[in-house]
Structures are given as structure tokens and as C-alpha cells.
Amino acid sequence: MAKPDLSEDMQCAALPYRLGRHGLEILLVTSRETRGWGIPMAAPSEERHPDRTAEIEAFHAAGVKGAISRKPIGDYPSSRRSAEGVDSACVVEVYPLLVSNEAATWRDKSHRRRIWFPGNEAAEKVADSGLAQIIREWQESRITSGRGTAKMARGRGGSRHG
């Protein structure tokens, strides 16, 4: 597999989702620094594809595993904070992750909260307006394409299982 062009100003994010009682639900996690709601994200690695980086970070930050899309559903401008506390601009690529397993314990459990929200509510809760827009557009595209049903969500087309 060809290695993707990695940039220092890129982040790979997983958008964990499931079909629950309220239809499409999205798992949000709190940021370690600001405690605001967001999704698991990490800097890309030269050793793995960005979707795999997002998949691994979803387990580390939220304790979830499942089938991740090989293609991002979009990207948005954001900022990230270095270990030294310096903010810098970045672009976040978002990969949907159909959750099939939630761990009771995971690496960042003591530093983060995780909660399932209905899609529209998740878009309202996230701290980043670019992420909110991606959630809304993705949810709408699933509804208009008919992929918002439980039967379709269980399909395996175009995704990789983790």
C-alpha cells in the first residue's frame, strides 16, 4: 500500500457511531485539556494509513472498536495543543467507525468521559464548529441515501474491521 502524504498539520479522527434507540448515535469524548466534547484524534503515523491511526486512537481515547471506513467523510480546520501548551493550526480528517465493542476499561479512561448522543445533539455538543458541520452533513447524507437503517448499518461494504 502506498503511504499517504503526511503533514505535520494533519490529525486523523474517528467518528464512533451506532444505531441505537434514537436512530444514529455518536460517541463523544471529552478533551484531556479543555474537557470539551469532541471525537478521538491523533497525529498520523508514517507506519500506518490514517484510517488505522484513527481506529487505534478510538480505542485509546474512548475504548471502542469496530469497522472503520477507509475513506474520510470530510475534513475541517482546527487547532491542536502541543505538549508545551502551544496551539497550532491543523486539518482534521474524519473517518466513521461503526462501533461493535465497548471496553469497560481503556488507556484514557481516567482522563476522559464518553457518552452516546443522538446525531443532532452530538453536533450541538462538540466544541468545534467544523466538526459539528461534518456530523450534520454526514447524518443527512445517511438519511437521504437510506443508510440510516439498522439493516444497512450492519453492511460491511467499504469498511475495514478492527
Automatic annotation (TrEMBL):
Residues 153-162 have a biased composition (Basic residues). It comes from the Bacteria. Its cofactor is Mg(2+). This is NUDIX hydrolase. Keywords: Hydrolase, Magnesium, Metal-binding. GO terms for cellular component: cytoplasm. Residues 142-162 are annotated as: Disordered. Gene3D superfamilies: Nucleoside Triphosphate Pyrophosphohydrolase. GO terms for molecular function: metal ion binding; pyrophosphatase activity. InterPro entries: DDP-like_NUDIX, NUDIX_hydrolase-like_dom_sf. Signal peptide: none annotated. PANTHER family: DIPHOSPHOINOSITOL POLYPHOSPHATE PHOSPHOHYDROLASE, DIPHOSPHOINOSITOL-POLYPHOSPHATE DIPHOSPHATASE.
